[in-house]
Amino acid sequence: MNPESAGLQVNEMNGITRVGFIEQNILDEANIQQIGDALGELIDAMDAPKILISFADVAHLSSAALGALITVNNRVGSKAGELRLADIDPKILEIFKITRLDRLFEIHGTSAEALATFS
Questions:
Q1: Which range of residues forms the domain containing residue 13?
Q2: CATH number of the structural domain spanning residue 50
Q3: What is the pLDDT of residue 3?
Q4: pTM
């Protein structure tokens, strides 16, 4: 699946794949499935993937999107990869904290901060 058709912008730099979202609202179940599939294909194509997911332009995120992120995290972990999340709106970050997903994911304030943490 083409990442752009799933609403994703993907850039590769220094072995790190940076993923951003084209849409502000990640709420539609079918769209979330496409995003999950596209991310899965990206991960499957790499050995020890290093992925940064930036939520810079995202205003709303559904619980289904959180579930897809957990799946992505598990897939990256199964390949001994690294996953970082960054640029999360404070309201969305609050959801990560309430659900304790802030303990599962490595979350950084900015993409630049997150990029500096990859080994």
A1: 3-115
A2: 3.30.750.24
A3: 83
A4: 0.94
